[in-house]
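Archive entry. Fields below.
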Amino acid sequence: MKNTLISKTIKGVSLAIATSALSLSAMAADIKPAVVYSDAGKFDKSFSEAVWNNGVKRFMDETGIEVKEAEPTNLAQVEQYLKRLAKRGHSPIVAVGFSQTNAVLAAAQEYPDTQFTLLDGWAPEPNVQNVGFKEHEGSFLVGVLAAMKSESGVLGFVGGMDIPLISAFGCGYEQGAKYQNADIKVIQNMTGSTPAAFGNPSKGAELTRSQMESGADVIFAAAGGTGTGVYQAAADAGKYAIGVDSNQNHLHPGTMLTSMVKRVGEATYLSYTSAMEDNWQAGPVTLGLAEGGVDWALDEHNRPLITSQMEARVNDIKAKIIAGDIVVHDYRTDNACTY
Amino acid sequence: MKRDTRLAWINGLLLPLLNVLTAFAATAVLFLLIGVNPLEAAETLLYGAFGYSEGIGYTFYYTTNFIFTGLAVAVAFHAGLFNIGGEGQAYIGGLGAGLAVFMLFPELSPWLMIPASVLGAMLFGGAWASVPGYLQAYRGSHIVITTIMFNFLAATLMVYLLVKVLREPGQMTPQTVLFPDNAWLPFVHDILPAFGLEMERSPLNLSILLAVFMCFLVWFFLWHTRLGYAIRVTGLNPHAAVYGGINQKKIIVVAMCISGALAGLVGINELIGYHHRIIMNFHLGYGFGGIAVALMGRNHPFGIVIAALLFGTLYQGGAELAFEWSNISRDIVVVMQGLVILFCGALEYMYKPTLIRWLAPVQEVRS
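PREDICTED_STRUCTURE:
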C-alpha cells in the first residue's frame, strides 16, 4: 500500500517534470530558468515582489517558459535550494538578495556549468553574474525632489535593517537634499537590526509619526514591507512619502511624492533573456542611473505633485550624475557618509 | 504506586503522541482545503526528510540545533524559569565561538581549536543568560521580559559588530572572513567514507555527536548530581528549597548560565560546523523552536531528542514540500509547524482528563 503510494507520487512528480520539460523544449533555446527569492518572502510589496512582477512573471508571460520558484525560510535552505535547482539542470538561477552570497559561492563552486545571477551580492566565481545597483544615485534624485517639496526644511528617512546597503539609500538621499538646499535637515531612523525590520509596518508608522512631530514633511522609506506603514502614516497626516524598489506611487495617490525604483525585476528578466540568446555573461554588472538600473518614478499617480520646475531640475541633475559632473558618494565604500 | 506508573506512561508517551497526531490531522484538513492530497503530501515530506542521504543530513542538522535549544529551555524550566532568550544566547554563543577562533593562533591544532571554540560558545551564551538570571534572582525582574529583551540586544550588538568591527573588508554582506580550516568541525559526509559509507553533501557535521553527549550530560547533571537536585527542587517547590537550605538566588543564576551555555552551542553547529564564519541571523527560529521541543519532550533529554527530530523532520520535509508542490507555499509549512506547537504546547493537556478517566479510573475512586 505504502509502496504503491510512493511510486505513484514519484510517477506524478516525474510526469510533472517531464511535461514542464516538454513545454520548455517546445519554446526557444532550451533554458530551464529558476529563481530563489529572499527570505523576506516573495510577496513583500517591494524587493522580492519586484523580481516576481517585473522579472519572473513577465518572462513567463512573454515566453511561456516556466520559471521554477523557491522560497527559502532560512540560510541553510537557500544553499539547499540553489544546489537542488542546479542539480536538476536549471540555469540561469537568479538568487535574490545579499544574504544569499555565501550560498551562491558554494553552489557555484559545486556546479561550475550552471549560470547563477546574484542580485545585490558579491560572489566572485567564473559562473556568477553579480548584479549591483547604485542605490545612492537614485536616492540622490529623490532627495532633491524631497528638498524642493519640503516646506518645513526637515526631511525624514526610515531604513529597514541597519546594514550598509540601507545606509547607502539614506546617505544618497541626504546628499541630494543637501545639494538642493544646504540648510535642510534630514532625520534618519532604522527600523531594527534583524531581517524582521523589513516587515514591520507598525514600527515604520511609529517612526514616521515621531519624525513628523520633529517637523519632517517628506519621508523616504527604504525598508521593504515596513514601508507600507510609513506611507500610511504620512498619508494620514497629509505629509509626503517616497516609495522604494517597486514603483509604489499608486499606493496613496496624492501623498506619494515619487518612488526610488530599483529595477531588480528587469535585471532578472535580462538574465533569463540573455541566457536564451546565449549571451549571458558572468562577472560584475553595476546598474546605476546611466543603465536605468535605478531611477525616480513619474506616472499619473504623482503627476500633480511634481511641478514642471521640479521635473526639469531633477532631470538636469540626473544628466549630470550620468555625465559624471556630480559624483554621489557611496556609503558602502568607506562605511561613512562623507561627501 | 500503580497509578503513578500509569500516569507517567500517559503523560510521557501517550499524550504527546496523541497531540502530534491531532496536529497532523488538522494539517491534513488544511491540505484538503487547499486542494492537496494529504497522503501524497506526507509522502513528499517523509521522502524529503528521510528518503535520500542529503535530506537525512539536513534533517539531523536541524535536529542538532533543536536539541541544543531544547536542552537549554529544559534546564531553565527545571529551575522554574521560562527562558525564552534562546535566540539571543545562541546568537551570542556563535560570537563566542568565532571570537575564540580569531583570537587563537591560526596554526593551532584542530584538537585544541575546536574545543576552545566550544568553550567560547558556552562561555558567551552562558554569560549572556546570566544577566537576566541575576536580574531575576536579585532584583525580581521577570525572566520572560528580560530574556526576550536580551534577544533584541543580541541582534543589535551583532549587527553593530558585523557591520562596524568584524566585517570582511571589501564584502558588502555583513560577515567575517572565513575561519582558518583548523577551526572547521568535519562534515559527516567527509567522515563517512572512512567507514566505507557514502553520503551526499549536507550541512550535517560532528556537532550532532556533541548534542548527543550534551543530552547525557544534562540527564546526569539534573538527576544524579547535588546541583541538579537543587535546581529541580527550586523549580518544583521554591519554599521547600529555601527550607532545605538551598540558596535559591544562586541556583537561578547558575541554571540560567547552564541554559545559556547550551543554547550557545547552536553557534558551534551553525558556524564552526557549517558556515565557517560569523554571519548574521544564523540562529533565527531555533531559540523559540526549542521552547516547543522542550515542552513536547517533557523537559527530559530523551524526550527532547525525539521532539527535536520531529522538528528537524518538519523543517527539512517542509522545505521539500514547499519546493515540490507549487500550491504549498512556505507559509503553509509554517502553519503546519504552528499546529504542532499549538497542540503539543498550548493544548498539551487537552486529552488528559479523558485519558485518565478511560485508562486509570480505579485510582480516582481510591483517592
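CURATOR_NOTE: Residues 2-26 of chain A form the longest helix (25 residues).
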